[in-house]
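Open question from group meeting: does this chain pack into something compact, or does most of it stay loose? Before anyone orders reagents, we agreed to write out a predicted structure and look at it together. Recording both the input and the output here so the notebook holds the full record.
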Amino acid sequence: MGQYYNPVILKKSWKESKNPVKASLKCYDYGDNGAKLMEHSYIGNFFVNAVVYLLAKDYKGYPFVWIGDYADPVTTKTGEHDIYNDANNFIYKGMGTDYTKEYRKLKVKIPNEMLQYKYLVNYTKRQYCIIPEKKEGVWQVHPLPLLTCNGNGRGGGDYRLDDERVGTWAFNRIGITNDESEIVGFKEISGFFELD
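Structure tokens returned:
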């Protein structure tokens, strides 16, 4: 079976929150994307670009995860949370508040054309990587979904190569920037992922 993924921006105090999700997007709203990890995790994909835009603007530095529906529940101070299901509730049902209104607002705010951002930053680990530039006719993996994914390796459509970086940034504070001053003193890791 295939595993489906949602990018999820968590509340800054998500470990203490009854409803940990701050924002989430669904791949089907951004062109011809599949929900499996490697159906959308590439440079130039409009869905990934929409998430990049949010992490560069209103949600820079928020805890973040690209969560799979086969991922294990997460235990916090308020109990056990299925983050994938919580993200779907944000998008489709709301969780005690009018989250669907917030979801519509997020979709409207994202511009049709995205800026090219250079740095993907992990403020928790004090690491960054350079986002590869889009090359015409070349299939390139975008590092954001792979570095922040949770649940990879449990379903069809997941990233199958053995790479210790996959998932190591999940639930960390993530941001996107072009400002080199934001990465001073941070360790660079490679943003290049091979395809099989």
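Observations to bring back to the group:
The first strand starts at residue 5 and ends at 10.
Helices lie at 37-40, 46-56, 83-93, 99-109, 143-148.
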